[in-house]
Design a protein that fits this description.
It is a single chain. By secondary structure, the protein is an all-alpha fold. About 80% of the residues lie in helices and about 0% in strands. The chain has helices at about 1-15, 25-40, 45-70. It has a domain at about 45-74. It has 3 helices and no strands.
């Protein structure tokens, strides 16, 4: 489950537009899914399922927003 959550968080991060220009902060944000994956190994599986489900819903929401913006030409 932590591996699935890490992959989902990675895709969520790639879909979300970035507003920071600082290269160091962008590098740190690239490693955040991996760090969270290691943290989730020691936590209860119910918490990992909750975060995974939340992340998948956020990916779907971001996809729909991106599609709406493409239709509007923004």
């Amino acid at each position: 489950m932590p591996v699935l959550m890490t992959v989902a968080m990675f895709f969520q991060q790639k879909m979300t537009p970035t507003t920071t220009a600082d290269p160091m902060q962008q590098k740190m944000m690239q490693f955040m899914p991996v760090i969270f994956g290691f943290f989730m190994i020691a936590l209860p599986s119910g918490l990992v399922v909750y975060i995974l489900f939340s992340t998948v819903l956020q990916i779907a929401s971001q996809y729909l927003v991106n599609q709406d913006l493409i239709k509007k030409g923004l």
